[in-house]
Amino acid sequence: MINYHKGDLFPYVDKLEFDGLIVIPHVCNDKKAWGSGFVVPLGKKYPRAKEFYLNQNIELGKAQLVPVAGFVQTDGVPYSQLGSRKVIVANMVAQTLGGKRPLYYNHLVKCMEQVQALTTRYAKSYPGKTAMIITPMFGSDRAGGNWDFISELIEDCWLKQAIPVTVCVLE
Q1: Most buried of 9, 33, 89, 105 (most Cβ within 10 A)?
Q2: Total-model pTM
Q3: In degrees, to the nearest 5, what angle opens at C-alpha 79 toward C-alphas 115 and 60?
Q4: Which run of H or E residues covers position 151?
Q5: Is there a contact between 80 and 69 (Cβ–Cβ < 8 Å)?
Q6: With respect to CATH, is domain 3-169 assigned 3.40.220.10?
């Protein structure tokens, strides 16, 4: 079952007592347009997620997994810091701009499967540690998707894999 939290995602993540991996997935477009909705505060909180999105070409159906907290850079490769909370932003490219319905559900599922694979790899690499997903109501506002259907995709892709999911809803 999806856990719903009323309030801003970032203070919720900051106050959460959790020693594992937090993945923050959201929907991006394939045109490198980062300027409205959830990405505005996301880019302020985690500028690295915005920088990666704007500076790399990424196609529909790909999730760009960007380490933003609990990692150190060595020779351009992020390494996990011991004993610290880890946060990865998943820029899920599943939307194009314009059109009647800019969200592509088939591309969204591919992205969600990549997020699921990340959490599985984490659990295998760090026995005893868990991963969780904390996310906005992605894909249902500017992307034009149907939240009822997206929540069923969350059930199929993440909850059935025993990944805890919290959706933060602004009041």
Answers
A1: 89
A2: 0.92
A3: 30
A4: helix 147-157
A5: no
A6: yes
